[in-house]
Amino acid sequence: MLLVLAVVSHFLVRTQKWRAGWPVAAACVVFWAFHSIGSNKNIGLRYMLPLFPVMLMLAGRSVLLLRRLSGRAKQALVALLVVLAGWAVSETVRIHPHYLAYFNQIAGGPRGGARYLLDSNIDWGQDLKGLADYLKKEHVEGPVYVGYFGHVAPELYGIKAQPVSRGIMGTVAVSLNYLCGMRYRYPKDYFRWLRKRKPVAIIGHTIYVYRTIEP
Fold it and tell me: Rounded to whole angstroms, how far apart are CA atoms 117 and 42?
C-alpha cells in the first residue's frame, strides 16, 4: 500500500526534487528482493522491518504534494488517499483480533496466505486458547487428538490432548503449519492425509478441527 502511494505520487508530479528520492526507493526494492525472493528464511516479517520507516517517508511525501497540485491531479491523489486509508481501516476491523494471520486480498486473505508464507508469518500457536473455547462451547467430551505447533501445553487450557496418528477416530485439531507440511514435533508432511478432508471448524485461521477421522 505504501509503495503504491509513493509510485502514483511520482507520476502525478514529476520534478527534479521528487526524482532524487528514487535511489532510496530502488534500494528498498533491492533489499526486499534479497530478503524475500532471494532468501530461504521463512521466520517472519522481522527482516522487512527496516523498510517501513523509508516507505513511510516516501509515502508521506505524497501528502505534501497536495499543496502543489490542482484540478484533477489533486482530486485523484485525495481519492487515492481516502481509498487506501479506508482499505487499511476495513482490513484491520475484519481481521480483529487475529492480526498475526493477516494477509491482504491479493494474497488470498488468511486462508490463501499459507500458500506463500508459514511459521511465524501466520501460525505461531496463538489460537490454542481459541481451541479450548471451541471445545467447551461444542461440549466435546473425552480426549482430543492435537497436532499443535507451539510450546504451550494444551492441558494448561483444559484440553485433554493426545498425539495424532493414522487410523484414529474422534476429534482432531491440527495447526496450519503442520497441515502445510512443516516439520517440528512431527515429520514433514505427516498430516498430508488430512488435507483433502473438510474441517468442521477453523479456529482463528490457524487450527483446523476435524471429526470422526477414519483409517
Answer: 7
* Plot region of 53 (φ>0 → left; ψ -120 to 50 → alpha; else → beta): alpha
Name residue, grid cell 503442520. 178
CA–CA dist 192, 171 (Å, integer): 17
Contact 171, 140 (CB under 8 A): yes
User: Measured at the alpha carbon of residue 161, what is the angle toward residues 173 and 116, in degrees to the nearest 5?
Assistant: 35
pTM of the full structure: 0.75
Dihedral Cα 208, 210, 214, 215, nearest 10 deg: 0
Tens-place pLDDT, residues 128-178: 999 999 999 999 887 899 999 988 999 999 998 998 887 788 899 999 999
What confidence tens digit (pLDDT) does each residue in 75-122 have? Answer: 887 888 888 889 889 988 999 999 888 988 888 888 888 888 888 888
Residue extents of the structural domains in the chain = 2-96, 119-211
